[in-house]
Design goal:
Oligomer: single chain
Structural class: alpha+beta
Radius of gyration: 23 Å
Number of helices: 7
Order of helices and strands: EEEEEEEEEHHHHHEEHH
Largest sheet: 4 strands, antiparallel
Strand order of the largest sheet: 1-6-3-2
Number of strands: 11
Distance between the termini: 60 Å
Helix content: 25-40%
CATH topology of the largest domain: Cytochrome Bc1 Complex, Chain D, domain 2
CATH class of the largest domain: Mainly Alpha
């Protein structure tokens, strides 16, 4: 994918961006509702991730996370992965902007990370029938990502993690009690928060923990419901004292 490209339409204002920057004509009354723009919109800048589709955020080469306007009117977009900063300037000639350019802008909207997903065809879980994968997707994937590599900033990876493939009792304790504050994983500190998952049954916890211990290149032994139950009972006994 090429370096981020900027359209030559000058009368634009930004409404939102993540891996691409969307905008609406300045005179438009379009707003976003439930993630959808209610009026017309265009792709202002794209190509930051350099991959499509973006299955996990850690797959992206660059992640635009900051934006600012300079005194000269230039727009600056900063990246959270490698610290890169892009300077975006308007140099287009609106008199040369025609049907061909409009068609190219419209084509950008079909990229999978920009278009509204199809609930059936774009469902990444449709070929995952196992309950273990469903449990992971429901309770873990949002932070640790589909590939188990985390987001690179707040939430740690699960692949080759000493917390995952190490002592089972420590892992069960961690998931039952949750995590608040910094945690070191594979030599890097992460400061995200993981809520308690004690609301899951012993069997569901055993299934999902076995899944992460045997996925993403991991090859640790399984966790069973009896092991989870024993540790849960100890935690409850300690809290009741």
């Amino acid at each position: 994918m090429a370096e981020p490209s900027v359209s030559t339409a000058a009368r634009l204002r930004i409404i939102a961006f993540l891996f691409a920057i969307r905008c609406t004509p300045r005179d438009s009354t379009a707003v976003t509702t439930a993630g959808k723009p209610s009026g017309t919109w265009e792709v202002f800048a794209d190509g930051f991730a350099k991959v499509d589709p973006i299955v996990s955020v850690s797959d992206a080469v660059y992640r635009p996370m900051g934006i600012s306007i300079g005194p000269d009117g230039s727009m600056y977009v900063s990246d959270s992965e490698k610290g890169k900063i892009w300077r975006i300037m308007f140099k287009g000639d609106k008199n040369k902007f025609g049907a061909q350019q409009l068609a190219a802008m419209e084509k950008e909207k079909s990229n999978s990370h920009i278009r509204m997903p199809d609930e059936i065809n774009d469902n990444l879980d449709k070929d995952k029938p196992s309950s273990a994968a469903k449990l992971y997707d429901t309770y873990c994937r949002m932070c640790h990502q589909q590939n188990g590599k985390g987001d690179g900033a707040r939430f740690p990876p699960l692949d080759s993690s000493e917390w995952v493939i190490g002592d089972k009792k420590r892992l069960i304790n961690l998931v039952l009690n949750g995590v608040q504050g910094p945690i070191d994983v594979k030599g890097k500190s992460y400061d995200g928060t993981m809520p308690m998952h004690a609301f899951l049954s012993d069997n569901d916890l055993a299934v999902v923990l076995t899944y992460v211990r045997r996925s993403f290149g991991n090859a640790a032994d399984s966790v069973n419901a009896e092991e989870v139950g024993r540790i849960r009972s100890k935690i409850q006994d300690t809290r009741s004292k």
